[in-house]
Amino acid sequence: MSFIVNRRDVDFLMYEILNLDELLASERYQDHDRETVAAVLDLAQQMAEDEFLPCAAELDEHEPVFEDGQAKTPPILKKILKSFVDAGLPTASFDTDLGGMQLPALVSNFVQGIFQAANAPALGYHFLTASNAHMLHACGSESLQAQFLAPMIEGRWLGTMCLSEPHAGSSLADIRTVATPKGDGLYHLSGTKMWISGGEQDISDNIVHMVLARTPDAPAGVRGISLFLVPKYRVNADGSLGDFNNVVLAGLNHKMGQRGTTNTLLNFGESGDCLGYLVGTENEGLKNMFHMMNEARIGVGMLATMSGLAGYLYSLDYARNRPQGRHPGDKDPNEPMLPIIEHADIKRLLLDQKASVEGSLALLSYCAALVDKQKLASSDEEKGRLTLLLELLTPIAKSWPSEFTLEANKHAMQILGGYGYTREYPLERLYRDNRLNPIHEGTHGIHGIDLLGRKVNLAQGATLALFKAEIDRVVGRAQEHQDLATHCNALLEACAQILATVELVNAEPNTRKRLANATLFLDAFGHVVIAWLWLWQALVATEALAKGSDEEAFYSGKLAACRYFFNYQLPKVREQLTLVSELDTTALEIAPEQFIGS
Amino acid sequence: MSFIVNRRDVDFLMYEILNLDELLASERYQDHDRETVAAVLDLAQQMAEDEFLPCAAELDEHEPVFEDGQAKTPPILKKILKSFVDAGLPTASFDTDLGGMQLPALVSNFVQGIFQAANAPALGYHFLTASNAHMLHACGSESLQAQFLAPMIEGRWLGTMCLSEPHAGSSLADIRTVATPKGDGLYHLSGTKMWISGGEQDISDNIVHMVLARTPDAPAGVRGISLFLVPKYRVNADGSLGDFNNVVLAGLNHKMGQRGTTNTLLNFGESGDCLGYLVGTENEGLKNMFHMMNEARIGVGMLATMSGLAGYLYSLDYARNRPQGRHPGDKDPNEPMLPIIEHADIKRLLLDQKASVEGSLALLSYCAALVDKQKLASSDEEKGRLTLLLELLTPIAKSWPSEFTLEANKHAMQILGGYGYTREYPLERLYRDNRLNPIHEGTHGIHGIDLLGRKVNLAQGATLALFKAEIDRVVGRAQEHQDLATHCNALLEACAQILATVELVNAEPNTRKRLANATLFLDAFGHVVIAWLWLWQALVATEALAKGSDEEAFYSGKLAACRYFFNYQLPKVREQLTLVSELDTTALEIAPEQFIGS
User: Fold this and answer.
1) CA of A342 vs chain B CAs: smallest distance (Å)
2) A414–B445: do the CB atoms touch at under 8 Å?
3) How far is B382 from chain A (nearest CA, A)?
4) CA–CA distance from B521 to each of A404, B226, B441, B447, B499 (Å)?
5) Tens digits of residue pLDDT in A567-586
6) Rounded to an integer, what distance in angstroms lies between the CA atom of residue B176 and that of residue B191?
7) Which of B253, B436, B588 sits opposite A344 (nearest CB)?
8) ipTM of predicted complex
């Protein structure tokens, strides 16, 4: 079995749930069919298994080091990323006229995911490059695109997002980096950026930083933020590299996990002129930044999911092969030990992983399909509808997998017991890698505020109605199956409670009180979303079994995971939403001095 | 503020909750009073802060290495453990006639805990030595005690527990190490032991292994297990050290955390005669082993709790000092940023930590006081009652802190954001250290089966009734206070559901079905236990405030944490117990091939 992907599940999501065939039949994707899709996934899986997976532990142990002001990365990292580039894989998500493969996002998302499961920190360097290039294509001037886009798409130059500063992480309103107009359309950058993934490395010929900064006369706060493209090396008119642009590595952060990706503190313009190009217009930096950030957020959800999947597959294989103990009540020591997958609690730990991981994968795939459908939308109204749904789901697509596949990795480690806790096995590494995901690209708490404070009220509430319609669509079909009736009712009830909660919260005029339990709402809403996607999967599985499919194990496994999620996880939503709707102020009201009494 | 202990809370638990004064008034503890107790805690805190805490990161980074068949530990480790021994601190929990301080366990537990918060892996070497020595004192022959006890109590020789083998972790019935009688009361040991903490080190003059093994004609399974004392160096009649006893280090395990404690694979008798002494009688090894194991399990609960406390205190300090962002709805960027402790979600993350950590500390302190009261019990009946309560609470005292203070460490890291994820700050280390606790000394799942399969039915159910009486005692007093009435009702309801669940589960004849959701029961019962202890603390705080205490912040903080636990955590119990009592078989029934469909 593969330890990084379950291709049967990928096909299930692409073809049986999200109707990739319909996308492939469109003019936009006419160069692709089931065969080319399988071929690119085969290529990705083979390269990931042959090259990326075997060195994952080594990259974790020998992280990049700071030497003479440079970040030195291990040779093996350069080697595997060269294979990735040489095979043209960075181009998966770009249009043909930009030199890309023009794959549906539903497919390119899995290409990315397969590498993330094998070796997330290695793929990290390309992960942000893709979202930067998409943003540059959407927001940058023609000349900027002409200079920078092709090498980024091809993966020869790698990209970064430079938002945070040492004193300003979540609070972008307070960044201090300054961009002073030079007079010829260029700007002098000056400031310090923190937590910049891939901010310095010796892998690519150039690095393209996307930097948030303020112009000297910009208004305070987020309304005065602009976005600049700042290359590590300046680029001559003919595309060749010019002088060093004075983006200086001040230090590497030493992380708990994701160690193969450099994480940097960068000084801009301290040692000499650091030139940047404005992307879009002044003071609209945040809007442009969100173009790449939203994509990165969904990418973080995928990153988490694939750590979760890798842990799930590994612990499943271990549970099948590790003999230990006997059934309770059946203690004859002369009988052979059972493989631990026979023990109820091990099954529960596996089922919980399956429910979280495959549920998350369904969510990320659904989001990817929304992106594809946006591109095919026949009207602005249709496109707007898809955009609103994606906006609503983005905080959940980022946060739910980050929280709950971390729990899945915890379970995977538990299944291996002492072995899981040692560095000789991959579980503890996956768990350390995954722990980053609730922190970066907006902390878990920030996404709660985004969801309850903003997203549920977009378009005067039309967004929530769109989501409810998606649920009704699935429930409507599922209700035709007796076995799914209980789940349908549970989902409708939970969804009704979500809507009622939003109404009750909106009625409260005090903003602090309204948002005091936003994180609970985020988790609960996420549970409802995942329950919906499980019901959908169970529906398709039920129909397949009714048609006499010979894949009984696969489809009945989907039904079991659905039942698990509805019985063990969804019921948690009720009490959480009650707290949110009752505007519980226990947390809001405690004073700093009450925590330890001094 | 201290980053390892809140002495005000320690005093609260000792004097206001658990009535240490009454213990100190007894003849057994006549050498101690509030002053000597404070003095030994002062000593522990000062040594822990001055010597153990500053090198914790260094010990994590430079773990012991395997060289020439030996485990080489860093010099700093030897230095601080020498201070610990020189100060006489290993003797804290032993009786005066054994050369100990004869402190109540309620106090010595905090002495241990303070060092665990500062540097758990360093204290690890002494942690098992104490439980081994207690067991040896209770179960060993006089001559064994005469030879081995004093150097162990003094901390000159360190002890280990050798239970697991590479193929047998949880399933002790299947161990294969053999002890062949030599004819002179000694045995030849032969076999391999795995996961042995401190199994080899260069810190102490000798190592005393407590080894589970079978005699050649022993019955199969746990009924044929005996316990042997096996020293690293043989001991001459005059107490001097003799020949190497052929306990050979085969390798070190490289762990995710707790790196300062060696964790070893040991071969017994492979290279030559390895002699062991029988402890107690043949085939009663498991009973004797549990004497030390139960103490170690409660010690693991304390270990987890103190990792949780250290993370709580660190993140609290950070939250008070880190400015970031403004209140939602109050976004004027010209206003200064707030310390993050002002944000509702940060307060929630701190409150959850406070509730878990101080709740766990109350539980471990309650258990320690039970141990003290056993020693003072005036009748066998009274002693039996205390023993049953301790037996019932042991799986919870081990498991609840292991699970929920790990979550607390996750929250602490979240509060520090990117900083929390780096190795420059202690949070990620505490989180890694703590992750061991749900695995060792019985996995989380094993304790669930122990609790639901055995402990709740001890003494024909009298045990549960004793626990219920403890709850009623607190509720009876709390009901006198209007403000606590809701909590009282919630606790009684949850407790009633526990009892009803046990009854429903007991009525099911199929053992596998009965125990299929035992882990959920463990967590839910733990929540009820912690809720009871929070109500107790809130009761005492309410009474103190009513008496006009000038420690308003401390006591009202206790009330806030109690309210948090009852509003945010206790409600989770209902759905969990419903699953247990309805004997949900979703997990039990899934077949291995259904997980991924092949």
Assistant:
1) 8
2) yes
3) 32
4) 21, 32, 19, 10, 11
5) 999 999 999 999 999 999 99
6) 7
7) B588
8) 0.97
